[in-house]
Design goal:
Blueprint lengths: L1 H20 L15 H24 L3 H28 L16 H40 L3 H29 L5
Helix pairs in contact: 1-4, 2-3, 2-5, 4-5
Organism: Marinoscillum furvescens DSM 4134
InterPro entries: DUF420, EF_Hand_1_Ca_BS
Protein name: Putative membrane protein
C-alpha cells in the first residue's frame, strides 16, 4: 500500500503539470459551467478548512466516528477539488494577477496598479502550490494508518500533516480571493 501512496503522490503533480503546461487546452467549448469551477474550488477549500477544524475538535473530545467521517469528507472534497482544478486549468487560459484588460500580458500601468499585492499573491500562491504537493503523501499515509488501526503512527504524522493541510486549504481561498477580480 505504501507503494501506491508513493505512486499517487508522484502521479498527481506530474499529471497536473502536464495538463497545465501542455501546448493545448481541453476543448470544452460551450461548457459555461467551467467558469464556475474556480468558485467551486474556493468553496471546497473553505469547507475543507472548516471540516478539518471540526475534525480536530471531534477527536479532542474523543468522538472518533465523527472525526473519521469529517476526515473522509475532507478527503472526498480534496479529490473533487483536484478534478475540478485540473478540468478548469486544462481547458481555460491562465489568469494573470494584475491583467486588467485580460490580454494575457502585463503592461507597465497594470504592474504599477497591482503593486505589492502582486508580490503578496505570488508568495501565497507559491507556498500554497509547494505545500499542496508536499502534503499529499502525508495525508494519504495518515488515512492509511488510521484505517489500518495504526493509531500511534497516525498521531505522529498528523502533528505535521494537519497544519500543512489546513494552511493549504486556507491559502487556496486566499489565492482565489486575490485572483478573482482578474478573471475574464
Amino acid at each position: 500500500m505504501i507503494n501506491v501512496i508513493i505512486g499517487v503522490s508522484i502521479a498527481i503533480p506530474l499529471v497536473v503539470a502536464i495538463l497545465l503546461f501542455a501546448p493545448f487546452k481541453l476543448n470544452l467549448e460551450g461548457a459555461t459551467w467551467v467558469s464556475f469551477l474556480p468558485t467551486f474550488n474556493a468553496i471546497a477549500n473553505s469547507t475543507t478548512s472548516v471540516l478539518l477544524v471540526l475534525a480536530l475538535i471531534a477527536i479532542k473530545k474523543k468522538k472518533v466516528a465523527l472525526h473519521r467521517n469529517l476526515m473522509l469528507s475532507c478527503l472526498v472534497l480534496g479529490a473533487l477539488f483536484l478534478v475540478s482544478y485540473v478540468t478548469y486549468h486544462a481547458s481555460s487560459p491562465s489568469t494573470i494577477f494584475g491583467d486588467l484588460d485580460h490580454n494575457g500580458e502585463l503592461s507597465e500601468m497594470e504592474l504599477s496598479e497591482a503593486g505589492m499585492m502582486r508580490t503578496v499573491y505570488i508568495v501565497v500562491l507559491l507556498s500554497h502550490i509547494g505545500l499542496s504537493i508536499v502534503v499529499v503523501p502525508f495525508v494519504l499515509l495518515a488515512f492509511y494508518y488510521a484505517l489500518n488501526d495504526k493509531i500511534s503512527q497516525h498521531r505522529k504524522i498528523v502533528k505535521y500533516t494537519f497544519p500543512i493541510w489546513l494552511y493549504v486549504s486556507v491559502t487556496g481561498v486566499i489565492v482565489y480571493l486575490l485572483i478573482s477580480p482578474y478573471y475574464a
